[in-house]
Amino acid sequence: MKINKIILSIVFSIGLSTSFAQSLDSTNKEYHFSGTASVTNNGISFIPTFSIGKPASIVILSMGSKKFSFEPEFRASLEGKPWSVILWGRYKIVNGNKFKFHIGAHPAISFRTILATVDGKNMEVIQGQRFLAGEMAPSFMINKNISIGAYYLVSKGFEDNSSKSNNFITLNSSISNINLSNGVFLRFAPQIYYLKMDKDDGYYVSSILSLSKKNSPLSISSLMNKVIRTNIAGSKDFSWNVSLVYSFYKNVAIRN
Predict the structure, then answer these.
(1) Closest CA to 128 of 88, 174, 159
(2) Residues spanned by the domain of 37
């Protein structure tokens, strides 16, 4: 059995068992509901074939307990065409003040528009590609504003015209709460990553810059991505976007 199949099996087994355990845990009464809604001028994905390269909207939600959360993601172009649907389940194995480690798994559908002949007529058809993925993400807090970490995502595609095996590995860091002036804060999150899609692979560097104002739910972020070396089809030497983001977070206490 290949290593990526082993990792997927382990992640899904742990995720399902911990999810079931959480549902039976009658002592856990605190839950959260949070999320972000954003619009961007350029829909970018770290996996090149998943980028749409046009204005898009993204909604990411998170609901669950301190350990387990369900985090669906919905993406679409501003034209109204679906981009992707990802249904994450995540479990925090370690959630200490310094060291954190979580695993996750998801089914996903990535959409693309293709030309097809239907009843003798050429027309655009939206095609869905199914994927199954697992992730592992350790991180270490150097102080309350600086962290370093790693991330590994392995996924399997099921359609004949999609990549069957994807491996995504990053070394990342985050510097947050950089006080600029008048309650405006900057967050800088650079990373270097390796991507392998079937037999093709590549190395990239990327960074996220975010500007936010204290007590405001709105923020502005920019993603920049640069190729170091790659032979993966669809990779652009340099790509970037700007996004307007609305964020919210709610704690819910449930009592007997």
Answers:
(1) 159
(2) 3-253
Instruction: Count up the domains in the chain and report the number.
Output: 1
- H helices of 112-198, in order, are none
Residue type, 234: G
Q: What is the pTM of this model?
A: 0.85
**Per-residue model confidence as pLDDT tens digits over 114-144:** 777 777 788 878 889 999 999 999 999 999 9
Question: How far apart (Å, rounded) are the C-alpha atoms in residues 241 and 172?
Answer: 19
Q: What is the pLDDT of residues 150-201, one digit of tens each?
A: 999 999 999 988 899 999 999 999 999 999 988 999 999 999 999 999 999 9
Strands 68-77 and 56-64 come out as antiparallel
Q: What is the pLDDT of residue 208?
A: 97
The residue ranges of DSSP E strands in the chain, in sequence order, are 30-40, 56-64, 68-77, 82-95, 99-118, 121-143, 146-157, 165-181, 184-197, 200-213, 218-230, 238-253
What are the C-alpha distances in Å from 56 to residues 42, 47, 106, 210?
7, 16, 22, 18
| Strand-strand pairing, 238-253 and 56-64 | unpaired
CATH of the domain at 211: 2.40.160.40
Distance CA 190, CA 211 (A): 15
CA distance 55 to 14: 37
